[in-house]
Specification:
By secondary structure, the chain is α+β, with helices and mostly antiparallel strands. The protein has helices at about 30-50, 60-65; strands at about 5, 20-25, 60, 75.
């Protein structure tokens, strides 16, 4: 199954009114150190999915790495969660 990308434009809407749209492309603007941190986060998420299976639902980069709190939200979601 190919992975999917979702996102939305920051238009200042309240969270309950935001509807993510499927994206065809993303551009990640980051330096080498940030990319390594994000890669580490993705590896951690993959390990969590493997260890916990369907009970591992999602994780936010900023929750795992507080230095990304002022960055756009980056969330990994388990496609098998809730099945």
């Amino acid at each position: 199954m190919p992975f999917k990308l979702y996102g939305y434009k920051d238009e200042g809407l309240p969270p309950e009114e935001v509807v993510p749209a499927e994206l065809a492309e993303i551009t990640l603007v980051a330096g080498p150190a940030e990319l390594r941190q994000i890669a580490s986060f993705l590896l951690h998420a993959a390990e969590g999915m493997e260890a916990k299976g369907k009970t591992w639902e999602h994780e936010h980069l900023s929750d795992r790495m507080p230095e990304f709190r002022s960055s756009p939200h980056f969330v990994v979601y388990n496609p098998e969660a809730g099945e």
